[in-house]
Every structure is written in C-alpha cells, then in structure tokens.
Amino acid sequence: MLQSVPAGAVLADAATSDxxxxxxxxxxxxxxxxxxxxxxxxxxxxxxMSMWFExxxxxxxxxxxxxxxxxxxxxxxxxxxxxxxxxxxDIVPRQVDKFVFILAPVLSAVPAFISFIIIPFGPTxxxxxxxxxxxxxxxxxxxxLVLAMSSMGVYGIVLxxxxxxxxxxxxxxxxxSAQVISYEIAMGLSFVAVFLFSGSMSxxxxxxxxxxxWYVVLLFxxxxxxxxxxxxESNRIPFDLPEGEGELVGGFHTEYSSLKFAMFFLxxxxxxxxxxxxxxxxxxxxxxxxxxxxxxxxxANEGWWPILWFVIKLVLFxxxxxxxxxxxxxVRYDQLMKLGWKVLMPFSLGWIILVxxxxxxxxxxxxxxxxxxYSIIVxxxxxxxxxxxxxxxxxxxxxxxxxxxxxxxxxxxxxAGGFPVPPMDAPHYHGRQxxxxxxxxxxxx
Length: 445
What we know:
Elements: E1 2-4, H1 9-17, H2 29-61, H3 77-87, H4 98-115, E2 124-127, E3 130-133, H5 142-163, H6 167-198, H7 203-208, H8 215-218, H9 220-233, H10 245-248, H11 258-283, H12 291-296, H13 305-325, H14 333-363, H15 369-401, E4 427-430, E5 433-436, H16 437-442
Antiparallel strand pairs: 1-2, 2-3, 4-5
C-alpha cells in the first residue's frame, strides 16, 4: 500500500531528464486532488496552531498565562476565534466601493494558498501503487511563482485601503505597496545566489542539490537578507507599518469586520507559513534531516520521515517570527525604507557579483579559496567603513535638527506654532459658543 523508495531517486531523474517537470502531471486525478486537499488542511491546521503558539509564547514572555480555556491547554482558541468572527455582524460602510471592498480579502487569501503548492514536503513515495513526490507540483521557475503570488496579495491590501474610502485605510494600503516593492526586490536578489549554485529555479531540484551541504552554510549572506526581507513581506512586527495601530487605527483593514477581516488574518498567517517553508526549502535542505541524524541513520531521508524534519524546521521558523514580535519595537518608516533601499539592495547586488565571479572561476579550474578569503575581508572592511560613516552622518543630522543651547538660552516652546500641541488660547467650538483651552480647563463655559 504505502511503500518508500530511495530518497529522491525518481524525483532527481525527472528533474534532470525532464526540465519541463511534466512528471508531476502524470498522477491520477484522485491523487492530485488528495495532494491539494492535504496541503489545504495542513495550512488551516498550521494557522490554528500558529495562533495558539504565538499567544502562549508571547504570554510566557510577558509573564501571562495565555489562552487556556478552549480545549486542553487552550488548543481550540483559534477555532473559537474563527467561529466568533464568522458569527459577528458584517458591517459594510455606506460610501465604500462594494465590489472591490468584497474582492480585496479574496485577493489576499487565495494567492497565499497557491504559493504553498510548489513546496516539497518529502521525497518520492509509493501511494496505493503510484510513485509520486510529496509535493503538489513543480515548475522550472517554481520560486518565481511565490514572488508572483506575494505581489498579487499586495493588490488585495491596496484595494482594501482604496475601496474603504477612509484616509487611514488608504494610507495603510499605500504603505504596504511601498514596503513590498522595497523588500521584494531584495528578496528576489537573495534568491539569485541560490539559483547560481543549484543551476535551477525548481524547488525540488534545489532540495536535491543540498544533499551534501545546506545553502545556509555556503550562502549565509543570502540567508540573512532573506530572513530580513521575509519579515518585511509578512507585514509583522517590527515591519507592521501598514497596520500601524498607533497612527492608522488598524491600517488597511480598519473598515472590515466578520469573515472579511478573518480572511486578512488568515492570509497573514498563511504567508507566515509559506515564507518559513520557502526559507527551509532554499537554505535549510528542505525535507532533509540535519547532519547528525542523516549520518547516523541511513533511512532518515527516505519514506515518510522527511515530513517530520520539514515540519520541525517550519515550526522553528514560526517561533523565530513570534520571538521577534515579542521582542522588537516597530521601526520608523524612514528606517524601514533606508534599510531596504540603502542597505539590503546594494549589499545583495555586491554579493551576487562575488558569487558569480567565484562560480565562474571555479568552472575554469582556478583555486577559489584565497579569492573567497580576500573577498570576505574586503566586504568586512567596506561594511565597517559604511557603518562608521552612517553613524557620523546621523549625529550631524541630529545636531542640525536640535541645535545646542547656550547657557542662557531657554528651550523652545513645542506648542508655539500649534504643533504638535495647539496653543492654550486657541479657540474651541462647543455648539454655538466659542471657548478657549484655558476656559475649558478651568470649567468656564
């Protein structure tokens, strides 16, 4: 019935001999439907467990109990929240564009599900006599599908902000579009080094190429860039500026309620799982077991066991997301843009040039060990010079904004120009009667 074959044997042969990946379309219809259903159920369960996981971990970090009422240890709290959202009244503001207002949550949730279809869960196995890979499907440009779907998801956020006819929602949608443009470019650049080393954009082929050493070791700078950019793509703390409760009420979903709001919530957590799974696939060997286990146990990467290693890596990355949310504060918007455009993109371009040069020289038969060492030294020196330069420029800017006060000079009045606090004698209107702030404070009407 359910039998295993040597790890990735059929998959590797198919990826090598058939670059169009037609082998993934030869499964019977019931097997394809079963894979799609299994991926859908896995994502829904992952969302429910991630919600419980996040609330329990952050509760422990903040010396709180966390959810512990619904089900054992509060495990059914996410399901209870989903039922509550489904039963709440669906309020649609009068002035919204109803068609776009309803379409926007769908555009956010559906691409999040599609992206996971190209993630490999394990090697080729036998299911009821049919040899099939534990993967929904694969493409010669599978990684680019994830980038395309993440770009489509942003349309849902932008349209939600625009159709709500609310300034807070519109600002949240515009922030999200600017943030995704800034960080998706750096994310795509972090993939280039992986493509150069693996010689393919197929996710199954990339996992096969990491059979001896994971790319997190060979391409650690690309791994760091991807981890930073995936936090920007997920719109979570410290990069949750599209929501920005302190200044935008709720951001792009301010006017949403009931199931429409739940779909945005669902899309956020599915993207969390997709980004973690993609990082596992590209840099952490995908479904392959870690070195101590794979060296001691010969069958660790065969049969159904690789699903366990994949899920463990996925959970660790989700924990990393939650850990950051409970630790870091929200950054300023200028810091967000500066990190994306002035740090991540130039660094990624320089790293790609270095990786391409090393690969070309290795193909020509040159010894690249000394070149790699010298390149690392040069990069470290340039990074140190850049850091010192930015610190010096930052100090000069602060001196220009806040000049030094002399011994006899008084501090400027922050309310003198009406910003950020209006002056005390500014008129306030209560009905037909005009009063001042001083009169209001003293009780005079």
